Amino acid sequence: MTYPESIAWLEGVSLYSKKDGLENMKRLMERFGDPQDRIPAVHVAGTNGKGTTCAFLESMLRTSGKKTGLFTSPHLVRYTERIRVNNQEISEEDFARIAGRVREQAESLQAEGIPHPTFFQLLTAMAFLYFEEQQTDVMVIETGLGGRLDATNILKKPLVSVITSISLDHMSVLGNTLPAIAGEKAGIIKPDCPVVVGHNSPEVMQVFTDKAKETGSPLYEADTVPSQVLQNDESGISLQQGNMIYRTSLCGDYQVDNLKTALAAAVRIGIPYRDMQQGVRKTQWIGRMQWIPGRPRMLLEGAHNQEGAERLGVWSREHLQGRDVTLVFSALRKKDVASILNALLTDSPFVRVIFAKMQDDSGLTGEEFEAIAKDYLGTRPLVCADSVTEALKTAREQTAPDGLICCCGSLYLVGEILAELEEAAKNDAARRARRRVPGNRVKKGIRRGHV
Predict the structure, then answer these.
(1) Which residue has the higher pLDDT, 124 or 174?
(2) 339 and 232 fall within a common domain
């Protein structure tokens, strides 16, 4: 298969299985000799922050000299983002080759009357195969949805299980209450394996405590580690624990929680403190409180559920008041958009709102957004753009050069913006290359644009 053919095949597969449990995933991996059992793993679940927590842990492990495999979801621009070795994306050629191997076995199972593996099961299998092929020392594995029945939960004995914050999301699949959702996430806790839990409410913590007791697993709460936040602004976070100070360019209150969770897990794994410090400093994670330079600057943040929006709202009120700030927003139709907007716009510094219609058909239209947003806009002007490109153009025109454009509401929106920025960067590089070609140079002493 070519890379485009592999993507077409994956996107043609069912997202969900009609059969409950992990039997299909187990059967598929048995065909390859269960490579996931031969590589030590860190397993991470949660509603918000699990991707960033994975990024922190991967960077710390890599800094300590380990060859790392990192499996995360969703991707923002390319499928290859999901599978990385030493933080380098799998090549399109390797992606297609591994997909071909998995497809062969998946279709063989189907021919035997066994249900075809799901989209996420196939990607998970590809990651495990690639990490074994690349002889990684350790894998950092993020769950896709939930935990108990997630394809990644065939891991038998992780070095540590990590659970980040829990909030109401994917309720049609995971349950309608926080304890119900926490119960699904707690499914990654394995007997006699340490579990680290990030910041959560008492009712959620009780679910994890009960599960840890049931499985005989030592439980560690990241919040119980004495910590002092020395800095949390646009330039990043400085967090002190004991005599160590950890600095990262990531910012936001929830990134403090993610950092504390990752540090607690790193201690359980046994990463040296100096490697933890350097690994944190080098961590980058696209689309989550990511700053894009320019005039005006741009801030990209998923904030695709109520908790994420509440945390971004709090941070923006603390750090962005008095500035010319434009909110570029979009969301999937299935999300609780009213709650997200309420969290973002109540007493917020956003002076105008621009809605961006995404390419994905499951995204809101301008008319749908306007009907929801009218109760939260107040006196703010609203522009509904027919595309992300148009929304960004309008935002740049209406925002002062020293202001800020904050883009949030969906990782699909962030992905479209990043893809557009990448394309613009490629075009700029091509133009610069053409100028360097003999015969294409601007004459000395004549300013560009005035020839």
Answers:
(1) 124
(2) no
